[in-house]
Amino acid sequence: MSSPLFGTICLVGIGLINSSIARAARLHGLAARIVTLDASEQACETALRLGIVDAAGSDPAALLAEADLIMVGTPVGAMAAVGQAIGPHLKAGAIVSDVGSVKMAVVRDLLPHLPDTVHFVPGHPIAGTEHSGPEAGFAELFQGRWCILTPLPGTDPGAIDKVTQLWTAMGSMIEIMEPLHHDKVLAITSHLPHLIAYTIVGTASDLEGDMQQEVIKFSASGFRDFTRIAASDPIMWRDIFLNNKEAVLEIIQRFTEDLTALQRAIRWGEAETLETHFRETRAIRRAIIDAKQA
Amino acid sequence: MSSPLFGTICLVGIGLINSSIARAARLHGLAARIVTLDASEQACETALRLGIVDAAGSDPAALLAEADLIMVGTPVGAMAAVGQAIGPHLKAGAIVSDVGSVKMAVVRDLLPHLPDTVHFVPGHPIAGTEHSGPEAGFAELFQGRWCILTPLPGTDPGAIDKVTQLWTAMGSMIEIMEPLHHDKVLAITSHLPHLIAYTIVGTASDLEGDMQQEVIKFSASGFRDFTRIAASDPIMWRDIFLNNKEAVLEIIQRFTEDLTALQRAIRWGEAETLETHFRETRAIRRAIIDAKQA
């Protein structure tokens, strides 16, 4: 039998993504030992009760001493604090990676706290659900999904390769990107859609009481799909918007211009403008189906 | 064996909704005979090939002579033309209903062409998929979904009751509403979500070539859910926006104000504003799940 890819994996923060990594890594035998470092006593207890980790707690020294791979899965706003907490306890030669939805801010906030003796390979699995916490995870979450890695120039190719092997073994395809480019792509594919969903659900929440009950009752006509997206973790999303400000503001601006153009077409009864627009958007749907990401 | 609810049902336009009615009505034995009146030769051929109707064609006189229930399932922009075409051929005592997504415009455009000898019960099943055409229908589409009826004051209660029985037998729950109120509720639950989805997918379509490929590749992070909604029938949606102009423009205005407020919070780094907003929107999701409409 071949030895596992990693001796010990330490998952920092045991939410939806890291608890799915725990399950997938165990299922595919990718680590001899899986531990989690989480400030929440309740999250640690849950992870132990679910049997997805071998040890759990809030003491970095104890949990990081043997860790060969450290996967940071906290909201991106906590990266500086995480760096300060884990930096002094990292084993020489260890690989530090993460699953944060923005990458520039992670490089900015986490990297300065890491010793020169460790390798840093930031990452972002393009997978998730609207549910949060260690109980929401499942081993198949990454199957057929992309994982974007954003290593800085000069990163040890061996470290990138080991992180690649981990994600590939869990079913993902790997894409290498620059952090800034990642943040621009995700601003449109993920951050704007979530902001729009949060906005429209908020608009509905502000309606008069009677109307709000009817919105819930008749939500199957389109609205409910937005409520699913807008049920995602509030802290995680607060941090994403605050840490990808420029790219998000730029794409909101484009979106608002486009919405205003359609609004104007509705006001002036421009049937052809509307029809042409609604036809063109079908092509992207077909492309997504063809790319097997539907 | 009891006799079916209707002798002959004539489905005017055989798209997703009417072809689902054909299947459900047949499955539950709700009509002795089901026919379709559709200007498209291809749609008629498909419906006959699928075996979901007993007769199909474009001659109103022949197809309406025996019809006890006429269900209009064309885009709402075609209602006046449909009224002109069917009006002179309707049997005395027949019930005319429809499945249009706006109701004021249907009353405005269809009713004037109907003789006094028929009953008019406008309706709108809150069900659908992003697919179009007679092949996209299925008998279970209305199961557990609401159907809104918007009869005008003075409508024969017996006619309302028969339409209610039809929808109930196909698995729906019935809600009676005034047409204007329907259009306001649907503007928020359906029309705005679709417009937003069409907008964001359009914004992505306008990106530079390379970026567009990446948007497709990494669409699983939120964007793809919008592309599904934005793949709906372009003619149908063009007509909805043009025929529910006031309610849609009013709700776009509210939405834009709310988006601008969140945009401002992102720009100024107002963490608490964002978090509070993102927390509140979870309540509506829970209410929809509780209402079994998720």
Automatic annotation (TrEMBL), chains A, B:
Catalytic EC class: oxidoreductase
Record carries keyword Amino-acid biosynthesis: yes
Record key words, sorted: Amino-acid biosynthesis, Aromatic amino acid biosynthesis, NAD, Oxidoreductase, Tyrosine biosynthesis
InterPro entries: 6-PGluconate_DH-like_C_sf, NAD(P)-bd_dom_sf, PDH_C, PDH_N, Preph/Arog_dehydrog, Prephen_DH
Keyword Cytoplasm: no
GO molecular function, one term: NAD+ binding
Residue ranges of domain Prephenate/arogenate dehydrogenase in the record: 7-294
Documented EC number(s): 1.3.1.12
GO BP terms in the entry: tyrosine biosynthetic process
Top-level taxon of origin: Bacteria
Pathway entry: Amino-acid biosynthesis; L-tyrosine biosynthesis; (4-hydroxyphenyl)pyruvate from prephenate (NAD(+) route): step 1/1
Reaction(s) the record says it catalyses: prephenate + NAD(+) = 3-(4-hydroxyphenyl)pyruvate + CO2 + NADH
PANTHER family: PREPHENATE DEHYDROGENASE, PREPHENATE DEHYDROGENASE [NADP(+)]
NCBIfam families, A to Z: PRK07502.1
Family: Belongs to the prephenate/arogenate dehydrogenase family.
Full protein name: prephenate dehydrogenase
Species: Magnetospirillum gryphiswaldense (strain DSM 6361 / JCM 21280 / NBRC 15271 / MSR-1)
Gene: tyrC
